[in-house]
Specification:
Elements (H helix, E strand, L loop, with lengths): L1 E8 L6 E10 L2 E7 L10 E2 L4 E4 L1 E6 L38 H7 L2 E6 L7 E9 L5 H4 E10 L2 H8 L8 H24 L11 H11 L3 E6 L2 H14 L3 E5 L7 H7 L3 E3 L18 H7 L4 E3 L11 H10 L4 H7 L2 H7 L16 E4 L12 E4 L2 E5 L1
Parallel strand pairs: 1-4, 1-5, 6-7, 9-10, 10-11, 11-12, 12-13
Antiparallel strand pairs: 1-2, 2-3, 5-14, 7-8, 8-9, 14-15, 15-16
Helix pairs in contact: 4-5, 4-6, 9-10
């Protein structure tokens, strides 16, 4: 099928095609061209001059793992019985039938990273998934990150139980201990000549091996500048591919982040300063980071901000000084690059998943929603 007569924001070096068409076959984009197609079929879509964008990507959420309108019954986000749980997997906590997936699609969000929470020094593996489907196994794209947390959250959870970690020092020490154990475990596995010499199976160490190999990224929940610096310090020690999640005070140390070449997933933005470490929350943060050469994405941290307000969060960052081009990039191609899935999504180019959406007017206008959304070449929503 084809979507034609569209203004195409490719999010690639091709920039904006003022009037063109996109061909889709078997869930993939096969052609992106200027002008009109030679043939138009009954199933093809006339965009009528609408803006065609890649589907939005929310780079950090708890979608499906914190369910709509439920308290404990639908909260599968934090296994707070142990402060170091890398063997937890977000995929096992997602309820694909949660109504918020429908709201995500209607807001143009076609993919998200969903994550364990930040109660633990290490919370578990994070999942990139599409927002359409009835079973998370068919929605899953990949495991793209391991969740770590620094700052107030682990301190508050375990201080209330009179357990470690009670301090930032203890949280960092737990992370280092776990990573050192995993390194030794991996070394012992590689040195073993046969199965009889393998070390006893350790689920936590096994879960960290992809991180040590560089196959997935280390996502550090950080708000304060000192926690951001600790995350960078730990990443350097263990040669981890690090990402800062939230980075509320990142704009106070942009030169540190730029020098370390560590990206920041900014957000939530559309919220209050709900705890002390967020006292320097500023809508100008994303723009300041970008102007200093830091790669960014914008997130909702759903359910903190409902996932359908991802574009509203990007619009607020524009109000704070981020360019409109960078704002759109931060919830499409930029988010895909930070998550390591730019070969699947985030732009409009041949070979990528057909995750597309159409807007009649400016997609960053708070009054606008997409009138058509496609995920993997199939209709997700039509006005």
């Amino acid at each position: 099928m084809k979507i034609y007569n569209a203004r195409i924001h490719t999010m690639t070096d091709r920039g904006v095609i003022k009037r063109g068409f996109v061909c889709v076959e078997n869930g993939k984009i096969t052609q992106v061209s200027e002008g009109m197609p030679e043939e138009i079929g009954a199933e093809d879509i006339d965009a009528q001059g609408s803006i065609l964008l890649p589907g939005f990507i929310d780079a950090h959420t708890h979608l499906g793992i914190l369910e709509n309108g439920l308290d404990f019954e639908g909260d599968d986000c934090n296994e707070a019985s142990d402060p170091f749980t890398p063997h937890m997997r977000a995929i096992d906590g997602v309820n694909a039938m949660d109504y918020c997936f429908t709201e995500a699609i209607r807001g143009g969000v076609t993919a998200v990273m969903t994550s364990p929470g930040s109660a633990n020094a290490c919370g578990g593996s994070m999942l990139v998934m599409k927002t359409k489907g009835s079973c998370v196994d068919t929605m899953a794209v990949c495991t793209a990150g391991m969740k770590f947390a620094l700052g107030e959250n682990p301190k508050n959870v375990y201080n209330g139980r009179d357990e470690s970690p009670k301090t930032r020092m203890a949280t960092a020490a737990l992370i280092r201990e776990g990573l050192h154990k995993a390194k030794r475990y991996l070394s012992d596995c590689e040195a073993a000549d046969d199965d009889t010499e393998l070390p006893d199976y350790d689920a936590k160490c096994e879960a960290l091996i992809p991180l040590l190999h560089g196959d997935i990224k280390a996502h550090f929940h950080c708000h304060r500048a000192d926690d951001i610096c600790t995350a960078i310090r730990i990443a350097r020690e263990f040669h981890l591919d690090a990402v800062i999640v939230h980075g509320t005070e990142g704009h106070l140390i942009p030169e540190v982040l730029a020098e370390a070449e560590v990206p920041v997933i900014c957000g939530p933005i559309l919220c209050d300063r709900c705890k002390p470490e967020m006292k320097n929350l500023d809508i100008a943060a994303a723009g300041i980071l970008r102007k200093n050469g830091v790669k960014i994405a914008i997130c909702t941290d759903h359910t903190v901000i409902p996932v359908q307000y991802l574009s509203a969060s990007a619009a607020l960052a524009v109000k704070g000084g981020l360019s409109e081009e960078d704002a759109l990039y931060s919830i499409t191609r930029g988010a895909a690059e930070i998550l390591g899935v730019e070969d699947r999504m985030g732009s409009i180019a041949p070979g990528l998943d057909a995750d597309l959406q159409l807007y009649r007017r400016d997609p960053l206008d708070l009054r606008e929603d997409p009138w058509y959304v496609m995920i993997d070449g199939r209709k997700g929503f039509e006005e």
